[in-house]
């Protein structure tokens, strides 16, 4: 039962590495971005796990309720803004992928690299 | 006890979904699974007492990010190339790192431990002082808008910068104002020939907009605020664009107005800082805005949250239109 208190952290570790695997092992750029957002979500989970206090509630103070326990507001603020920044940066990544597809005709990383090599060879 | 079991169930589903996203070779399926992933994540955040974050994740992760990913997928190949499956080195590195991180977690305080170091630092001060200094119930909004206002201003600028970056890369949505109206009406519309989504969507849009404004202006009292409201507002307009056609949505909120929203919100936020400086305080020190410092704080938070909401809505809509306009 004591070890169940660590389950959130284990899920964090697994999610982090599932996302990271997609980034390093899959050549498809959209899949890489999806992996990156899983990686990001794992970090969000880590922070939000830390805000929980046993028997607590969301940090919205009610007048007249004495000695209520509230969860920690600080990680929530950090992650709330990080989610919005995350989607904006993912969108920027997607925009670059779209342009890469228009320029190269493929979004597989090894193929774009090959095309780059051929081009630099022909310039010599 | 029930909550713990439910949490473990959700977290296990989360891992299964994540593995499915990475394994699946059809990118369309992957993208739909990310919607489920975000919804599960939002439920998890709610169980962990983070109502504000859950609302944000539900609005952004499950709503807008799926639409943006689909928008990008419409312009790129839908299938991942079938390739070498044996990425054994990567798999080995990833498994090893997972085990190391898991080993490290045995040093972490258990879930919900009130004596964890993270609860001893500034958090008790925030919870004690907010009723005295700012007097709004939602401490998350107080920390976001006032105690860490510099940080939030920085995040808004990052969102604005990412939006500008997308517009630089993909180009501005076409200037619809220059075209004739009948030309617009004949443009490709997405769901206009599907009756059910059209009827249901048209009914829902006003309520989604109303909810966005509720979340915006009720953020001091309950979960909510500019980030969530901006995302929900953008979601309502995107739904309109999906039903009536993207060009028609651009006549409701014109590209020029989108530009103004993107920069205007951030300027409003920064402007509050300049005003507080002119009134003799520090940058973003809202106490000088009114005779009573507590009223000044509340006024400042309401105005900067409005700025945040306008910028977030503008940036998300501009990004959506940039992708959608590319496809036509």
Detail the topology: elements first, then pairings.
The complex is a heterodimer of chains A (124) and B (328).
Chain A: H1 7-25, H2 29-51, H3 73-104, H4 109-123
Chain B: H1 2-23, H2 27-47, H3 51-73, H4 88-105, H5 123-133, H6 139-147, H7 149-170, H8 181-185, H9 195-217, H10 226-244, H11 246-252, H12 255-278, H13 293-327
Question: What is the count of helical runs of chain B?
Answer: 13
Mean pLDDT of chain A: 90
Biggest protein-protein contact in the assembly? A-B, 83 and 104 residues
What is the CATH topology descriptor of chain A? Helix Hairpins
Radius of gyration of chain B, CA atoms, in whole angstroms: 23 Å
Classify the beta-strand content of chain A into a percent band.
under 5%
Cα separation of the termini of chain B: 53 Å
Can you describe this structure?
The complex is a heterodimer of chains A (124) and B (328). By secondary structure, chain A is mostly helical. Chain A has one domain: Helix Hairpins. Chain A contains four helices and no strands. Chain A has helices spanning 7-25, 29-51, 73-104, 109-123. In chain A, helix 1 runs antiparallel to helix 2 (29-51). The relative contact order of chain A is 0.11. The model of chain B is unreliable at 175-180 (pLDDT under 50). Chain B has 328 residues and is mainly α. In chain B, helix 1 (2-23) packs antiparallel against helix 2 (27-47) and helix 10 packs parallel to helix 13 (293-327). The longest helix of chain B is centred in the C-terminal third of the chain and has 35 residues, at 293-327. The termini of chain B are far apart. Chain B has two domains: 1-121; 138-328, no CATH class. Helices cover 73% and strands 0% of the residues of chain B. Classes of the chains: A mainly alpha (124), B mainly alpha (328).
Feature tags:
heterodimer, A: 124 residues, mainly alpha, Helix Hairpins, B: 328 residues, 2 domains, 13 helices, 0% strand, globular
